[in-house]
């Protein structure tokens, strides 16, 4: 691993913990309470506020704002955190805020995600692994995003919504309800379901039998004409032979916001 390299025009607080092989660009400010893992690169003109923990081998490009105070009027300076995993790519002008005291206190980002330019992750969000946030995609507070989710450009997610694993949110879609795993959402005033993310599932090694079971679950929920209670009974029957359908049904059962239908 290469030696740590901090540009002479960067400012790193004496209380920050900097791992081996970290590189920090010019005019970047690293505040107190920040921990940066081995091999992470931070470009020029960034700000990283604490308490924030950043894992290994992340690449944060120029002008990103990481770990800032939550944009919540109820925030009164209480101790809150941002935790970022390993191997993430965070591009120019991305902003990721810490949590709030009333919302659990922590914003969490998993590993191996891509956050493209101008994306925003608000306070108390929980983002999984291997996600892609395209340019200008935005999460409001308290949003939960599963693994392998793709948010296309200019997509927006309302606070407290959940997006299940392997979902695909189309360009410009505004999501104001929970999105079950595997679905594709397209813009129509607010985002609406438009089938399952079958191409993404195939690329991730889902066998045809698994994809077919998920399609049957989608038809039961969205195309059968059944009300939600009856649709869940159909899903329960389908789930007996499919762990993917069980995950689909479990996601629905845990919901606190209306389901996007």
Q: What's the helix count?
A: 4
Strands in their spatial order, largest beta sheet: 1-4-7-10-13-16-19-22-25-27-28
CATH fold name of the largest domain? UDP N-Acetylglucosamine Acyltransferase, domain 1
CATH class of the largest domain equals Mainly Beta
Distance between the termini: 50 Å
Which descriptors would you attach to this protein?
17% helix; Udp N-acetylglucosamine O-acyltransferase, Domain 2; alpha/beta; 11-stranded mixed β-sheet; UDP N-Acetylglucosamine Acyltransferase, domain 1; 2 domains; 261 residues; 9-stranded parallel β-sheet; single chain
Question: What does this entry look like structurally?
Answer:
This protein is of the alpha/beta class and 261 residues long. It has an eleven-stranded mixed sheet. It has a nine-stranded parallel sheet with strand order 2-5-8-11-14-17-20-23-26, with no helix packed on it. The protein is elongated and about 65 Å long. It folds into two domains: 138 residues, Hexapeptide repeat proteins (UDP N-Acetylglucosamine Acyltransferase, domain 1), CATH 2.160.10; 52 residues, Udp N-acetylglucosamine O-acyltransferase, Domain 2 (Up-down Bundle). Helix 2 runs antiparallel to helix 3 and helix 3 packs antiparallel against helix 4. It contains four helices and 28 strands.
């Amino acid at each position: 691993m290469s030696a740590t390299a901090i540009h002479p025009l960067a400012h790193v607080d004496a209380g920050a913990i900097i791992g081996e092989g970290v590189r920090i660009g010019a005019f970047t400010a690293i505040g107190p309470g920040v921990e940066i893992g081995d091999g992470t690169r931070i470009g020029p003109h960034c700000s990283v506020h604490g308490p924030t923990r950043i894992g290994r081998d992340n690449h944060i490009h120029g002008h990103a704002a990481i770990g800032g105070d939550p944009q919540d009027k109820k925030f009164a300076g209480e101790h809150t955190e941002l935790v970022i995993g390993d191997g993430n790519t965070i591009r120019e002008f991305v902003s990721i805020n810490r949590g709030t005291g009333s919302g659990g206190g922590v914003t969490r980002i998993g590993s191996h995600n891509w956050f493209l330019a101008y994306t925003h992750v608000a306070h108390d969000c929980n983002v999984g692994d291997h996600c892609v946030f395209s340019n200008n995609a935005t999460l409001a507070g308290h949003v939960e995003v599963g693994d392998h989710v793709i948010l296309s450009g200019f997509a927006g997610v309302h606070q407290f919504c959940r997006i299940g694993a392997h979902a695909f949110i189309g360009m410009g879609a505004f999501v104001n309800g929970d999105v079950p795993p595997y679905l594709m959402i397209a813009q129509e005033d607010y985002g609406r379901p438009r089938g399952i993310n079958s191409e993404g599932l195939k690329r991730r090694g889902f066998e045809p039998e698994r994809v077919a079971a998920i399609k049957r679950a989608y038809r039961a929920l969205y195309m059968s004409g059944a009300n939600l209670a009856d649709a869940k009974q159909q899903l329960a029957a389908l789930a007996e032979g499919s762990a993917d359908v069980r995950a689909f049904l479990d996601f629905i059962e845990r919901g606190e916001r209306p389901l996007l239908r």
